[in-house]
Amino acid sequence: MSERRDPIAPAGGDVANAPVLEVRNLGVTYGSGSDAVVAIRELSFSIAPGEFVCIVGPSGCGKTTLLKSIAGLLRPTRGDAYVAGKRVDGPPKDLALVFQEYTRSLLPWLTVGDNVTFPLAARKVPKSEQLARRKAALAQVGLPGFDDKYPWQLSGGMQQRVAIARALAYEPAVLLMDEPFASLDAQSRADLEDLVLKVQRDTGLTVVFVTHDIDESVYEADRVIVLTQRPTAIRQILAVDLPKPRDQITTKALPEFVRLRTEVLKLIKNEPTVD
Amino acid sequence: MTRLRGIAIGLVVPIVFFSIWWVLSERSTSPYFPPLRRTLTAFVDIWFFARFFTDLLPSVGHFLSGLTLGLAAGVVVGTLMGLFPRFNRDVAPMTEFVRAIPTAALVPLGLILFGTGFVMETFLISLAVFFPILVSTTAGVRGVDPVYLEVARSYGLSFSDRLWRVIIPAAAPQILAGCRVAIAFGLAATVIANMVASGSGLGFFIVDAQTSFRLPDMWAGLIMIGLLGYLANTAFVVVEHRLLGWHRGWRGATRAASAA
């Protein structure tokens, strides 16, 4: 883990570790003619199975646009995304998305348990397996036995845990998270950062985590992709070789953590860096 | 327990009302306001015996068939209008136009088209029911939180799964609010249809009793209509309670959150 690696290629880029997520020459332009707005100029990167990658960038830099293109909710104008080797043209089966708006991404007429299983029910997964996956997923996010509660009876942090459980029960290859903790209080946020790290370590899931919080990105990631201002391109990709498991207090006190966060901050503010 | 108490409290006001009516009217010699005792005797004779099959049952039957038909059509068309903005844009001027015409004004048209009887009354009642449910269903379906739909889409739900698992449940509170209005409209249309265009039914009975000066009968008819409306609404509230238990809790929670 301590050896320096090429930050552009995914960790351990051999053939057996074919990328689970690949973005090739992807660009998005809204509108056409003189009204055209280039949201994303061109992006290419690939992510290996089991990696934790954070995407950061200045606000309004098209992070959500990129994420929606990967999630198959938006058709890119140029280029393609590939999830588990398949070109994305519609929401991929191997991908689950966790939204920022936890109060609105859970369905208020369903209980916590039914919220976790409703994508499975629509996919005609057998009832017994639905129940097994739901039990496991709720336990993983620290909400065992909350099945019969309604989401609106829970705190914000717990609601986002339910949304994560729903994504886990779906058993995706890639977990895509769109600023998932941006509207939580600091304590819940720290707890959930650690929860996602732990879940990722336990399951070996690939996580792509979009955030505008620089500390969060460095704390969570194996690699940080820094985007530029609109029209968006990749500013730089940084490898984060901080020891694992990470800890809110000791990790954030490491000189390497401080160095990385300063570097990411400079990249975002478009200042010259030491590199 | 609390539910039973709620019902008991709900009964207090009617009981007090009818008791006062009973006492005040007991010595009444006015032909217009007969003693409640006589009205209630008439009520029992009429609605449990003489007119049960000839007037009460047909009215209730027409009301229920018109209600069912109107609600079904309104929910279907309203859902389509909510789902497809272009369809809504094309159809809305027409529905707004027809909606503006009071049910009573449509009686002559109904008579020409269907004559008197079951078909004509069902037509009129379903039309009266159709518009309130149409408007609220359209609004409900259009107003579904886009995040719900994006979540459903991101998990690969098919269109029909999105419709049945997300759109309809999300729009249910508004659809049911429309139902409540529709029930009241439907009952009004039932009485109007009877009054103007048939030789039987509740509405006809009241007019007939009044013109032949059987005023206790007229009062008994009014009480029956009130009772029917009350029963229809109670049945509705029970259904709504079962379907929308989540909605009260959710609304309470979101209100508390925005107040905090």
Please describe what this structure looks like.
The complex is a heterodimer of chains A (275) and B (260). Chain A has nine helices and ten strands. Chain A is an alpha/beta fold and 275 residues long. A ten-stranded mixed β-sheet of chain A has the order 5-4-1-2-10-9-3-8-7-6, with helices on both faces. Chain B is mainly alpha-helical. Chain B has a single domain, classed as MetI-like (MetI-like fold), CATH 1.10.3720. Chain B contains eleven helices and no strands. Chain B is flat, with a radius of gyration of 22 Å. The mean pLDDT of chain B is 89. Chains A and B meet through α2 and α3 of A and α7, α8 and α11 of B.
- The tally of beta strands of chain B, per DSSP, is 0
First-last Cα distance of chain B: 32 Å
Mean pLDDT figure of chain A: 89
Tell me, rounded to a whole number, the average pLDDT of chain B. Answer: 89
Greatest contact pair? A-B, 26 and 24 residues
CATH architecture label name of chain B: Orthogonal Bundle
Structural class of chain B: mainly alpha
Q: What is the CATH superfamily of chain B?
A: MetI-like
Terminus-to-terminus distance of chain A: 21 Å
CATH class wording of chain B: Mainly Alpha
The helix content of chain A is 25-40%
Q: Indicate the percent of residues in helices of chain B.
A: over 70%
Order of helices and strands of chain A: EEEHEEEHHHHEHEHEEHH
Give the full name of the CATH homologous superfamily of one domain in chain A. P-loop containing nucleotide triphosphate hydrolases
Tell me the series of helices and strands of chain B, N- to C-terminal: HHHHHHHHHHH
Categorize the overall geometry of chain B: flat
Radius of gyration of chain B: 22 Å
Largest sheet report of chain B: none
Name of the CATH architecture of one domain in chain A: 3-Layer(aba) Sandwich
Assembly of the depicted chains: heterodimer
Layout of helices and strands:
The complex is a heterodimer of chains A (275) and B (260).
Chain A: E1 21-30, E2 37-47, E3 52-56, H1 63-70, E4 78-83, E5 86-87, E6 95-98, H2 102-105, H3 112-122, H4 127-140, H5 156-169, E7 174-178, H6 186-203, E8 206-210, H7 214-220, E9 223-227, E10 232-239, H8 250-253, H9 255-268
Parallel strand pairs in A: 2-10, 3-8, 3-9, 6-7, 7-8
Antiparallel strand pairs in A: 1-2, 1-4, 4-5, 9-10
Helix pairs in contact in A: 3-4, 3-5, 4-5, 7-9
Chain B: H1 2-25, H2 36-50, H3 52-83, H4 85-99, H5 107-114, H6 118-142, H7 146-154, H8 159-197, H9 202-211, H10 215-243, H11 245-259
